[in-house]
Amino acid sequence: MSSQVSLPQSLHPDLPFTALAPMQDVTNLWFMKVIAHYGSPDYFFTEYFRVNDTSRLNRSILAAITENDTGRPVFAQMIGESIPDLVRTAKELCNYNIAGVDLNMGCPAPRIYRKKVGGGLLLLPEKVDRILGELRSAVNDRPLTVKMRLGFENTDNFYEILDMINRHSIDLLSLHGRTVKDMYHGAVKYDLIAEAVKRVDCPVLANGNIHSATTALKVLSQTGAAGVMVGRWAIGNPWLFNQIRQALRFETITPVPLVEVRNYIDRLWQTPTAATMPERSRLGYLKMFLNYIALSVDTEGDFLRLMRQTSTEVEMFNLCDRFLLSDLTKTLALTPLKSV
Catalytic: 107? Predict the structure, then answer.
């Protein structure tokens, strides 16, 4: 067993950590750059590198490490179950300027967990024990971290796996307070995140439905976590990490004019990821982001409904102008107005 490794320096050592959750097809290099423009988290995590007996490091995901000029540490996330290939990939990743290696034990997509990877690993505690042991031996000069959920469809293995986190000296645990089968539905069990904070030796990032600075403060207070990891709600509000820091310092949260939201949408549209797509695909890509942005823009839900009906670039941006530029005094809601 190796001793724990120090985590990279945070932006504000006096405050709890913040992290952008890894989200497949979202948290690429260009989205990290966009988020950094509005206010970086302490840590970024890549989309997952798929690991199997024929896998090679995905060049697009690797760019989020090798071409990243945000100034923030980037953890490289892996997903897989083949121990030799996870070890091989972890060693390859350690040749790059990564903050650490992260193991995905939480992805709730059925096409993923059916392969006994991601959240599917939570059904196999003995396998998890072996994986963590081998990875800890392979990754001993920088942090080894884990992102997981409370369990697969119940929490029967929860405490057993937390003890493995200790046994293998994991350096950081990002814990989503739902099961795999919960997907993104139902209440987040912050009380079980609090139990994990008490039980494990490493810092814990609380994850799950942290949609506002107010929520972040409540979750930190309720769980005692070392920080928060935010995913989908940072898509809708890229100012959220700065707002969390303002709230932690008891400062007034700076309002975001809707015209700035309109500029954010332009940035998303113009990223190289979007710019190389055919128009229909590009519209679909932008709508993935707008599904969250819309929730903090319009109390009635009209923007969300009409946005989903648009079929051309002109329709889309005319609609954005109508809702975002018609009243320059309006600001982004500090709490999303409804849920998806």
Answer: yes
Eight-class DSSP state of 181: T
Residue 270, annotated as binding a ligand: no
Kindly provide the b/e burial profile for residues 140-178, where b requires at least 16 CB atoms within 10 angstroms of the residue's own CB. eebbbbbbbbbbbeebebbeebbebbeebbbbbbbbbbb
Strands 204-207, 100-105: pairing is unpaired
pLDDT value of residue 340: 47
How is residue 198 written in tokens?
A: 């008490």
> pLDDT digits over 191-201, tens only?
999 999 999 99
Query: Does 280 belong to an annotated binding site?
Result: no
Q: Which two tokens stand for residue 134?
A: 């081998």
Type and span of the H or E element at 207: strand 204-207
Predicted local confidence at residue 3, as pLDDT: 53
Q: Provide the CB-side half-sphere exposure for 276 (13 A, CA).
A: 4
Residue from 94, 107, 202, 320 carrying the catalytic annotation:
107
Q: How far apart are CA 8 and CA 72, in angstroms?
A: 9
- Between the alpha carbon of residue 195 and those of residues 43, 107, 118, the distances in Å are 24, 21, 22
pLDDT of residue 338: 56
> Which residues in the chain land under pLDDT 70?
1-3, 337-340
Find out whether 147 is annotated in a ligand binding site.
yes
- List Cβ neighbours of 218 (8 Å cut-off, separation of 6 or more): none
Query: Nearest Cα to 44, choosing from 150, 129, 147?
Result: 147
Find out whether 37 is annotated in a ligand binding site: no
Q: How many other CB atoms are there within 10 angstroms of residue 118's CB atom?
A: 26
* Contact between residue 205 and residue 175 where contact means Cβ atoms under 8 Å apart: yes
Residue 267 corresponds to which tokens in the numbers above? 């940035």
Residue 335, pLDDT score: 85
Which of helix, strand or coil describes residue 147?
strand
**Which pTM value belongs to this model?**
0.96
Does 231 belong to an annotated binding site?
yes
CA proximity to 282, closest of 327, 256, 316, 233: 316
Residue-level pLDDT at 160:
98
